[in-house]
Design a protein that fits this description.
about 375 residues; disordered N terminus; alpha/beta; 12 strands; D-Maltodextrin-Binding Protein, domain 2; 6-stranded mixed sheet
Length: about 375
């Protein structure tokens, strides 16, 4: 029997909250619902891989051991880029990833991960929870049979690591860079070449000349990958990903067959990870930045304004193209940027003046 075939109105297995006829053994055994989570990260990779495992652990603990999730790192069950298809098709139950990886499914998925000059982590959380973002995300996922929810955020990122200096937008022409989603399309339109490869392949690709540049996340994760050993130039800020969301995707038939209690347990575990991961990245990035400052092989520089201006102009063009592809894309685009602009006004009144005052007071 297909483990994704749910019979509406069927009796529920004691304690599992899911129809007994829906899953064949061993997926329900001794009152335990066993699920598989695929991820876009190496198993137990700091921050991201750990976050996926923390979600599974919380679900197990908060369900009293009734829901057991086995977490598979990228490539262990399916390749990272096939995680979405595995969950949508039912060969896996959940994924932990970044939704801009599903750009080829529907370009509007980019809005639920990160877009250039878009929302920070705090702003994204506000939009999804209170500004209609979750409802639009749900509408997008229905067409593919996937339920989506926030499940982590890396916060502000670095602009990336480069084997040669970037002095102007002209230096982007011919640049081969690992960069996903809308940012990758922007780079292509500016004359570069965007590549998406697995995290653990980045350092070797840069060392052997397969890549000229790569953005991953920030000092903590990037140094764990060894990017500081293969690229001399590190640029900031991460204008291409100002707050990169990580998501939990669940097979929609599975989600709809769960009890309200078990849905709440899964949602609660994802919500908790959304907070924990952001704190983890902010803390460890700060520590790693101090280490990186002492590393003699790297020059850290602010990205030239010329490059950021060119990227901003082209990003608007790409985003407008995406917004015109469908009525849903248009509504997501309008909602996203209305929320960003509204919260930007609040930040300009509260957060930015405070940060300037604090830096001045501590100087």
């Amino acid at each position: 029997m297909d483990r994704r075939t749910f019979i509406k109105g069927a009796s529920f297995a004691a304690g599992t909250g899911i129809a007994t006829s829906a899953l064949a053994k061993p997926f329900i055994a001794k009152g335990i619902l066993e699920l598989r989570m695929v991820t876009c990260w190496p198993k137990d990779f700091p921050g991201l891989g750990e976050g996926a495992q923390r979600i599974a652990d919380r679900i197990f603990q908060n369900s009293g051991g009734r829901i057991l999730i086995k977490v598979y790192g990228a490539g262990q069950l399916v390749p990272a880029q096939e995680s979405f298809d595995a969950v949508a098709g039912g060969s896996a139950d959940l994924y932990h990833g970044a939704d801009y990886y599903w750009h080829d499914k529907h370009k509007a998925y980019n809005y639920f991960a990160s877009v250039p000059f878009g929302m920070t982590a705090d702003e994204f959380n506000a939009w999804v929870r209170f500004g209609g973002g979750q409802q639009l995300w749900d509408e997008l996922g229905v067409a593919y049979g996937v339920k989506h929810m926030m499940a982590g955020n890396t916060g502000q990122q670095l602009a990336g690591w480069f084997t040669r200096p970037i002095n102007s937008a002209q230096d982007l022409i011919g640049l081969r860079m690992r960069i996903p989603g809308i940012s990758g399309e922007v780079l292509r339109r500016l004359g570069g070449s965007a590549v998406t490869i697995a995290a653990d392949e980045l350092a070797l690709a840069m060392k052997t000349g397969g890549l000229d540049a790569a953005e991953w996340i920030g000092p903590w994760s990037d140094m764990r990958l060894g990017l500081h050993k293969v690229a001399k130039y590190c640029y900031y800020p991460g204008f291409h990903e100002p707050g990169s969301a990580r998501s939990l995707g669940i097979n929609l038939s599975l989600w709809e067959g769960l009890s309200k209690e078990d849905r709440a347990i899964i949602q609660g575990a994802a919500d908790a990870e959304n907070d924990v991961m952001l704190g983890q990245f902010n803390w460890h990035n700060a520590q790693a930045l101090s280490q990186l400052a002492k590393y003699s092989g790297v020059t850290m520089m602010e990205m030239p304004q010329d490059v950021m201006d060119a990227f901003s102009v082209m990003a608007r063009e790409v985003l407008l193209d995406i917004s015109s592809e469908s009525e849903l894309s248009r509504r997501i685009h309008m909602s996203y940027f209305a929320a960003r602009d509204n919260m930007e006004r609040w930040s300009a009144t509260s957060y930015l003046p405070y940060m300037a005052a604090r830096m001045k007071a501590n100087s």
